[in-house]
Each structure stands twice: as structure tokens, then as C-alpha cells.
Task: inverse folding
């Protein structure tokens, strides 16, 4: 069992309008974060996780996920799953709890210029 206290979370803002609160774990198989997006993530193009899957629970707000060119509208209370290798972007005003398996790392995450 591992408890990650809120005062141990790390904040970073990869793009304007995006704040990520990462809760670091010792487990290489899973991790979690709270993500706040107001606008578009990434600000242009798409992103892809080459190794990890994402399970996303929408805590508040609503938006649109465009994954592999297909738009999906979502709102508070919805869960979305993004498989590794899928190219996507987010758009909206929402807060979500995100769990990644295996653990998310910057090395396996890529921003693609195309849309």
C-alpha cells in the first residue's frame, strides 16, 4: 500500500491553459494525476503515449477528446480510456483524474505536429 499525500504532488504546466498535478508513485506499473484543461491540449497537433494507457475520470466540466480523428464529447462523471499508440488531443474546460498503466514517463510521450 502506498499513500501519496497532496502536499507531495508536483505541479507543471506543459501548455497554456493546462495544469497537471502529478502524484509520484514508487510503482512502475501505475501512476496518477489530476489534470486541469482550459482550452486545448496540446495547443496544436496531437500527442501519443507509446507505452501507457490512460484511464480518465472527468471530475468537473466538459469537453471533447479527438482520438484518431474521431471526436467524442464528454462531461462530468464520464470515464474515457485511451490506448497506447492512439493519437489525440483534448479541448474544453474540465478537471480530470488520470491513471496511467504502466507509469507515465515523458520519454514515452510524444507531441506530433500534424492534426
Result:
Amino acid at each position: 500500500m502506498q499513500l501519496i499525500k497532496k502536499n507531495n504532488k508536483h505541479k507543471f504546466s506543459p501548455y497554456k491553459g493546462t495544469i497537471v498535478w502529478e502524484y509520484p508513485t514508487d510503482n512502475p506499473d501505475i501512476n496518477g494525476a489530476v489534470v486541469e484543461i482550459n482550452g486545448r491540449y496540446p495547443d496544436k497537433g496531437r500527442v501519443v503515449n507509446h507505452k501507457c494507457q490512460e484511464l480518465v475520470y472527468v471530475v468537473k466540466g466538459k469537453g471533447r477528446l479527438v482520438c484518431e480523428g474521431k471526436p467524442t464529447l464528454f462531461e462530468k462523471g464520464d470515464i474515457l480510456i485511451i490506448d497506447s499508440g492512439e493519437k489525440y488531443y483534448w479541448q474544453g474546460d474540465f478537471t480530470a483524474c488520470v491513471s496511467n498503466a504502466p507509469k507515465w514517463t515523458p520519454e514515452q510521450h510524444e507531441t506530433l505536429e500534424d492534426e
Remarks:
- The longest strand covers residues 53-67.
- The chain has a mean pLDDT of 96.
- The domain at 6-112 is CATH 2.60.120.10 (Jelly Rolls).
